[in-house]
Structure formats: structure tokens, C-alpha cells
Write a structure and sequence with these properties.
The protein is mainly α and 127 residues long. The chain has one domain. It contains eight helices and no strands. The radius of gyration is 17 Å and the shape is globular.
Amino acid sequence: MSSVIARIVNKKNNNANLTQDKVTDRIDRICQNNYDNIINAISNEIYQQKRDLPGRCNELARNELKTDWASARGRLSRTSGRLILSELSRWTTEEFKVPFGIDDIIEEIHADEIPLEMSTLLKEIVR
């Protein structure tokens, strides 16, 4: 997805010179900046399921997130896609004067850039 965002920005602003690596780094920073919110959401979910453990929910949430948080892919899998797109658009608007939205992504994305999971989901929806 990073390459798609970079292409959108570079097409709309010829002086941007935004690279896929810069977008990837920004996405990871967004994920890392939302660690506490993710912990709180997991902790709340644990509390809803196990009300007898109110004092341990945060600890359990941290343990649950620990493995995923060790890699950029894991952090990405635990962060809201909507939040990431919103924060990326805010950043590209501030930095490059280029806002973007889902319509821009749909217009710019190539078939081979659609993740397998999403492609499978879309095929199921179309059926």
C-alpha cells in the first residue's frame, strides 16, 4: 500500500519525491504512536469477556500484544486501517499539500498490489 500512497502524492505534487520507504516508515510510526490506544482496546475486550480479572486486564493485553508488536507487520495488523489512512492523509496534506482518500487509492492501486487476504474477501463479497 505504501507504493500506492507514494504514487498518489507524487502524481498530485511533482515536487514531492515521496518514496515508498518514507510512507512505510510513517505507517510504522503511526502504529507505534497508537500503542496505548491498542492496549486499552484489548484490555477493555478482555474485561468484557472476563469480568473477574479487572486488575489484570492491562497486563494480559500487553502479553497478548507482545508478539505482534515485535514486527512492523504485526504492528500493522493490530492498528486500525481507517486510523492509518486518516493519519497518512493528514501527514501528506501537511507535508506535501496533497490530501487523499479511498477513492484515490482505488483509482491508483494495481491488481498485483492488493493483498491476498483482501482479494479473497472481495471475491467472496462479489459472489
